[in-house]
Design a protein that fits this description.
By secondary structure, the protein is α/β, with parallel strands linked by helices. It has one domain: Lambda Exonuclease, Chain A. The protein is built from seven helices and eight strands; from the N terminus they run αβββαααβββαββαα. The chain is globular. The structure holds iron/sulfur cluster. It is an enzyme of class 3 (hydrolase).
Length: 204
């Protein structure tokens, strides 16, 4: 990167640091398919959920765990909190220095793989835009912090995920597979209508 480009990136970073409300559209288009961080997250949780969401069948509603998440954001991290939106979803907070730090606050590590993949996708996207960034997953209830650096292997994985997401979205709906997380999923009735005797005993 030449000096002029570096200067320009620094200027953009400084603007990001002081703007109270920032919106970045982190999206990659593959054919007609729009790939976003949320889709990357759903890809790692459930392919059926990814397909339904991608076809605008949106049954998500705010539940208790979303409300707890909001309380965590607004309370413990109040000082750092800035409204930053990446592809329509709020990034919990960001610190801008020589390297941009993207922070996400999570209640638990239950969706660890999906959370890491989503944050890695944002780092990948920012890198493509010329921003050097690092990610931090904060688990205040567990008193843990996990740093996410984008490795060359991660970039290969993300590119593979993006291609897979494209195929899933353009294909027919993947059959729902029962998993523990189905019990808390807004699509549960849609997927398992008439099978309400199941209480989530399956392993995965
Ligand atoms: S209910 Fe289960 S199978 Fe259906 S979309 Fe949700 S997580 Fe996937």
């Amino acid at each position: 990167m030449n000096e002029g480009v570096i200067r320009e990136r620094k200027r953009e970073l400084n603007e990001l640091a002081v703007e109270p409300e920032i919106s970045l559209n982190a999206e990659v288009f593959l054919d007609s398919v729009r790939i976003t961080g949320v889709k990357v997250n759903y890809y790692h949780i459930c392919k059926t959920k990814l397909w339904l969401f991608s076809h605008n069948i949106n049954l998500e509603k705010e539940n208790d765990s979303v409300a707890i998440g909001k309380m965590l954001h607004e309370d413990r991290y109040k000082k750092n909190y800035k409204n930053i939106t990446i592809d329509g979803i709020s990034i919990d907070f960001m610190k801008a220095g020589t390297i941009l730090e993207i922070h996400e606050i999570k209640k638990s590590k239950k969706m660890d793989e999906a959370d890491k993949a989503q944050l890695s996708f944002y780092l990948y996207y920012l890198k493509k835009k010329g921003f050097e960034a690092t990610g931090v997953l904060n688990y205040p209830l567990l008193n843990k912090v996990e740093r996410i650096e984008l490795s060359p292997e991660d970039e290969i994985d993300i590119e593979r995920d993006i291609e897979d997401i494209r195929k899933i979205v353009l294909g027919s709906i993947p059959s729902p597979q029962r998993k523990k997380i189905c019990l808390k999923c807004a699509y549960q009735e849609f997927c398992f209508c008439g099978e309400n005797s199941w209480k989530g005993d399956d392993k995965n």
